[in-house]
Amino acid sequence: MSTETEAPTADLLEKEGDAAADYLEGLLDIADLDGDIDIDVEGDRAQVSIVEVNAGELGTLVGDDGKVLDALQELARLAAAQATGERSRLMLDIGGFRLARRRELEALAKTAIDEVKETGEPVRLAAMNAFERKVVHDVVTSAGLVSESEGVDPDRRIVIKPAS
After folding, report:
1. Three-state secondary structure string covering 101-142
2. Are residues 67 and 133 in the same domain?
3. CATH number at residue 24
4. Predicted confidence pLDDT, tens digits, the chain (164 residues)
5. How many structural domains does the chain have?
6. pTM surpassing 0.90?
């Protein structure tokens, strides 16, 4: 078994993606929904996407604010972990929801960064889930500012601060 600090191998990530895809294909069959499943590896994570075949059909699998998507991601991670014997950090996207949300968050982060640079004061953002916080932290870091998470889920939020 690998440790938390070791990067997973490409073979392991492919196995994770395949296991999650098999699980999700079964789910789509049970729910009688059409969707194509794409598997990819990005960095040190397996990425699985369910792409809509019929417009609007997969919305129920996303749910309000992606809550059903988050739950399905956890189930897909469990299927991957069962197949590999390793903890999975797999990312699931359905109907492009996460991709669209990533773009929204990047724009939100850039607006907050501009405000911090202009005023020199910290900016607190609304509560976000772990995926959303990671996107914002990455944008803030690339802009040369500092960000930290505060609070406890589900009210955990990011504070963006000027660089020291």
Report:
1. HHHHHHHHHHHHHHHHHHHCCCEECCCCCHHHHHHHHHHHHH
2. no
3. 3.30.300.20
4. 444 557 788 899 999 999 999 999 999 999 999 999 999 998 889 999 999 888 778 999 999 989 999 999 999 999 999 999 999 999 999 999 999 999 999 999 999 999 999 999 999 999 998 889 999 999 999 999 999 999 998 899 999 999 87
5. 2
6. no
